[in-house]
Specification:
There is one protein chain. This protein has 342 residues and is mainly alpha-helical. It has one domain (54-339). It has 16 helices and no strands. α1 (13-26) crosses α2, α4 packs antiparallel against α14 and α10 (210-220) packs antiparallel against α11 (222-236). The longest helix is centred in the middle third of the chain and has 33 residues, at 99-131. The radius of gyration is 22 Å and the shape is globular. The N and C termini lie far apart (65 Å). Its main location: membrane. Belongs to the UPF0324 family. It is a multi-pass membrane protein. Pfam families: Cons_hypoth698 (PF03601). This is Sulfate exporter family transporter.
């Protein structure tokens, strides 16, 4: 009887990468094109995201695995393409929305948005002082929690004259909590039997970054996605007054505030979808491509969360971020359950 093959219980990753590289050297259908094992695994994970089994949560997990196990071989390119891909994906999602329905959702979410933004900024400042955190880091975390995560931090940071280290701490804190939210929120929504309407509002208010808001809402349903996207992008416009207020609070002369132009593109796509009937046959294709773009965005975000980023956060800023997020999530959920009908 032939002996059974034995397998080691633990994957020897360095040997695996070495074997992949060797196989690639021996098999070159594209001539002299050469990829390292690290790059090959990156592209294999990317292909899984593009396959029929690809989804926003899976893309984020694969990106995290690439970042933490072998490292992102294209850190600069990933960072550059993440923002652009997210913005164009959001614009594409506008072709799946009706202007009248979106206006109604935006009006309904206005009260929740104003209350949560003001309350989050005030509470964030108090928590930062209580924990003894650097004032700029504390304000960046509060701004990211209040409005739209990394986009708000990127807009407010230059106004604060924040250093690279301060920006990294705030962005790392927000991105970690974004990753948790993508998995946690749909599970909580189903457990509490939230309606599509309720979940869309809650996701838009309580999840930091637009990418995770859209990713979580897309898992919950089409109506949740429509409401969450509209309300979240309406909240993103608050970057402008918050950045101007930051300049006054921190006494930053000559501060320049960047307009989130992609929101205008989203509104334009929504108006075209509503009033230009000739575009409606191709609108579903554009929306499908936008969802693929969002999935790839989450993969790149996960691939950017390296061990260095995670270690840079520190305990106290992370505690501030968690406490602030917990309060915003629980209070907004309670208000929605009380005030919003199924």
């Amino acid at each position: 009887m032939p002996a059974k093959a034995s397998f080691t219980p633990h994957l020897n990753l360095p040997d695996l990468l070495k074997n992949l590289q060797e196989a690639l050297r021996q098999f070159r259908p594209l001539g002299h094109l050469s990829l390292t094992g690290q790059q090959l695994l990156f592209f294999l994970a990317l292909l899984v995201c593009l396959s029929p089994i690809g989804s926003p949560p899976l893309a984020l997990v694969l990106g995290l695995l690439v970042a933490l196990v072998v490292g992102n071989p294209f850190p600069a390119q990933s960072k550059r393409f993440t923002t652009r891909l997210l913005q164009w994906s959001v614009i594409g999602l506008g072709f799946g929305l009706n202007a009248q329905q979106a206006l109604q959702a935006g009006q309904e979410g206005l009260l929740f948005s104003v209350a949560s933004i003001v309350g989050t900024l005030l509470l964030g400042g108090l928590l930062g002082r209580w924990l003894g955190i650097d004032g700029r880091i504390s304000h960046l975390i509060a701004s990211g929690t209040a409005i739209c995560g990394g986009s708000a931090i990127a807009a407010v940071g230059p106004v604060l004259r924040a250093g690279e280290g301060q920006m990294s701490v705030a962005l790392g804190t927000v991105f970690i909590l974004n990753s948790v939210a993508l998995f946690l929120f749909p599970a909580v929504g189903h457990a509490l039997q939230l309606s599509q309407h309720q979940f869309g509002l809650w996701a838009a208010i309580a999840i930091h970054d637009t990418s995770s808001v859209v990713g979580a809402a897309s898992q919950y349903g089409d109506e949740a996605l429509r409401i969450a996207t509209t309300v979240k992008l309406a909240r993103a416009l608050w970057i402008i007054p918050v950045a101007l207020g930051t300049a006054l609070l921190f006494k930053t002369p000559g501060a320049k505030v960047a307009l989130p132009w992609f929101i205008l593109g989203f509104v334009g796509a929504m108006l075209l979808n509503t009033y230009v009937l000739a575009l409606q046959p191709v609108a579903p294709l554009v929306v499908a491509l936008a969802k693929v773009g969002l999935t790839l965005t989450l993969f790149l975000i996960g691939a950017g969360l390296s061990g260095t980023v995670l270690r840079s956060v520190g305990i106290r800023p992370f505690v501030q971020g968690v406490l602030l997020w917990a309060v915003v999530s629980s209070v907004s959920l309670w208000a929605i359950l009380k005030m919003v009908k199924l």
